[in-house]
Amino acid sequence: MKALVLGAGIVGITTAYELNRDGHEVTVIDREPEPANFTSFSNAGLFAPGHAYAWSSPAAPKILLRSLWRGDQALRFKFSTDPRFWKWMWRFWGECTAERAALNTTRKVKLCNYSLDVFHDTVTRTGVDYDGRTGGLIYLYRSEAALKAASAKSCILSDNGCRIETLDRDGVAARDPALAPVKDKFAGALYAPDDESGDCRKFSQNMAAWLKGQGVTFKYNTTITGFEKQGDRISAVMTDRGQETADVIVLCLGVYSPHLARELGHDLAVYPVKGYAITAPMAGRNNPPTIGGVDEETLVAYAPLGDRVRVTATAEFSGYGRSHRPQDFETMLATMKTLFPDGADWSKASFWAGLRPMTPEGTPILGPSRMKNLWFNTGQGHMGWTMSHGAARITADLVAGKRPAIALDGMLAVT
């Protein structure tokens, strides 16, 4: 069949791979000039089933409210006049119970673990380079109380297939010698030995090049403007460069998915949550991190990617704006200069802000739409790199009429 993938971020690229693998004639459309040029441009780089907690938790509303007068909160709330923002926030608030957080976390971690298996198979089959690094990820805690609480909380992950180890401060230094000079700042850490890291954008771009060699067509600088419908099918996808037709269409447009889905009668609960990223060169430095991790007190994540380090933080509930100011990165820089003062050339850092396509639950929206030939694969949020491979395989299986490898409770589009 002829398949059309809308979007060339990590979700669209992995979807194109899985559809091509199944023998479909695949075309990918994106408004950007190259793959992974929007949300996937500068993500955290962590492939982290061992950190697959739902953001909607009992603690989230208090953090968001504190952010109205404190600028150091990991979750930030800014008022908006957009009605869709308030509708989404109301649904997010409704997910912030202990019961819903546990359910959403369970669903997330199952998808993430499955996705890790699919990812390994993809890399084995294609040999695509992405500055990958195995050896686990480390989640650092500064107080004994926080470490003890995190260890207890991690049972929901270990019960669903993640290996989680608790480390004391000496164990932290052993796992990453770069942390040895500052080990006394921490009570310890949780260590997920099966977690990984890698450059999502580099993977996407190298995979796109590999797919071109397999006959996949890419049409960049092409904006999708709407659909032409005939009965219960989409007869054409309209763009600013003409129309495209296909037997199967998969919508992978991240934060812009709801805009087109509304045209088909769907109200997708996907809304942007802004994140901030720093990238700094590591070449020639004395003590860079050897594995990625998260400082859980500030929720600053970091990952060594080849000759550079990526640092990310903050979830800002503020709409579609992507602007940023120097003060937005102060906590991130201060944290990294404390952990790895000579781990990178922080004076040469570059700064970026992007929009994560979040659902209130934190799980993606997958499956068929009201139109018989349109499928959804969107809403992976802050774990697009981690979830994308599994979500793409699930999408290809659904298109083929096969039963997916994992249950999709809470993820299927409401039709």
From TrEMBL:
<feature type="domain" description="FAD dependent oxidoreductase">
    <location>
        <begin position="3"/>
        <end position="398"/>
    </location>
</feature>
<keyword id="KW-0560">Oxidoreductase</keyword>
<dbReference type="Pfam" id="PF01266">
    <property type="entry name" value="DAO"/>
</dbReference>
<dbReference type="InterPro" id="IPR006076">
    <property type="entry name" value="FAD-dep_OxRdtase"/>
</dbReference>
<dbReference type="GO" id="GO:0008718">
    <property type="term" value="F:D-amino-acid dehydrogenase activity"/>
</dbReference>
<dbReference type="InterPro" id="IPR036188">
    <property type="entry name" value="FAD/NAD-bd_sf"/>
</dbReference>
<comment type="similarity">
    <text>Belongs to the DadA oxidoreductase family.</text>
</comment>
<dbReference type="GO" id="GO:0005737">
    <property type="term" value="C:cytoplasm"/>
</dbReference>
<dbReference type="GO" id="GO:0055130">
    <property type="term" value="P:D-alanine catabolic process"/>
</dbReference>
<dbReference type="GO" id="GO:0005886">
    <property type="term" value="C:plasma membrane"/>
</dbReference>
<protein>
    <submittedName>
        <fullName>Amino acid dehydrogenase</fullName>
    </submittedName>
</protein>
